[in-house]
Design goal:
The structure is a single chain. This protein is mainly β. The chain has three helices and 34 strands. A five-stranded antiparallel β-sheet has the order 1-7-6-5-4, with no helix packed on it. Strands 2-28-29-30-31 form a five-stranded mixed β-sheet, with no helix packed on it. Strands 3-34-33-32 form a four-stranded antiparallel β-sheet, with no helix packed on it. About 5% of the residues have low confidence.
Length: 422
Amino acid sequence: MPSLLTRTCRPLWMCCFAAVLPVLNSAKGDDWPQFLGPHRIGVSAESGLLREFPGDGPRVLWKSPLGVGMSSCAVVGEAVVTMYQDEANQYVACLNARNGELIWETSVAPAYKNAMGNGPRATPTIAGESVFAYTGEGVLVALSLKTGTVDWSQSIQTLAGGKSEQYGNASSPLVLEKVVVVQFDGADNAVVACDRATGKLAWQAGAGTAGYSSPVLMELDGRPQVVAFCGQQLVALSPNDGKKYWSYAYRTDYDCNTATPVQVGSNRVLITSGENHGTTLLEITGLGDTTQVSTVWESTGKNSALRAEWQTPVLIDGYLYGLDNLGSAGPITNLVCVRLEDGQQMWNERRFGKCNFTMADGRFYFTTMKGELIIGEATPKGFTESSRSSLLGMTRQAPAIANGRLFVRDDEAVYCVDLRSR
């Protein structure tokens, strides 16, 4: 691996850096510090947002050139962090949220190339004064949020053995009090935790392939646990030592379990996959060796109510809103509403299109693979679209929403759109 390189934009040292420093130690409710937001559920606490775009389209506050990559944005205060690559290297980059100017960028690994798209896949996580990022081939790195200086860098393949995922490592780091957790096709495991301060191996667990999902911390039946949707199973582990609490087999074609698990109430977990698989709601009861995993309902196969390909569905007031993909990575994607109680599909907005979304202020903000931004409202009775506007290039990322602004990127730039209602 080439030596790590940090480039700091000197002209911004005085004009931008002072604006970032005061917010490093305290994340606010309207920050978006990691993949899928503060709680990894795809919902923002923002309010007072636009119900529709102005007549002349979205108000773009700034557009900052970047490069190839599938990472979304993490936002804390005035710091926007994402990943990208050029012909030589993968980078973690920090931009000023007010004007898009580069504060720093750091090379963390060689460029990553893959038939399904080049560049890093995972979204960085901002935690305290640190940024944790995960490259396409599986290098986990910790950097200073202030300067971009690398605190530690660890090859997960060297730690765990095994090999990189077929389509690249897409696990966005889960940062806990003492460890950072990612998924990887290890020799004997699929989940790896590194010490948060040093990067040294803390524990490894699970079995089978890693899949393309990101782990999440849940409290189920009164016990905190890391829940990871791996390529062949859902597994729950102790955050302290990786001890397995329970698992549930869930084999999807090509090991493409990609959506993040969704916690439902105090002891239920919902999982969903594309590739013609479907959705299952599980109930977890008991502690220790007496833990029981039972199926509340499942909707699988070609007639499933929901087969989320790579988009994590959102749960609102007992109803699940998600994107149902028909066929094996097929081109047809429907927007659907599913009643959580029994898995009944309430409505189906057919051929809505491949996209991703974030929910905020009672509305859904979509980014389509065609590069459109869409605003719409969804209830159990139906969906109403209020705005649709072409803005960026092809993207798969769900937007990050923070401080009245929407942040999204494609393979050429990061865009910041004003969502404040006037």
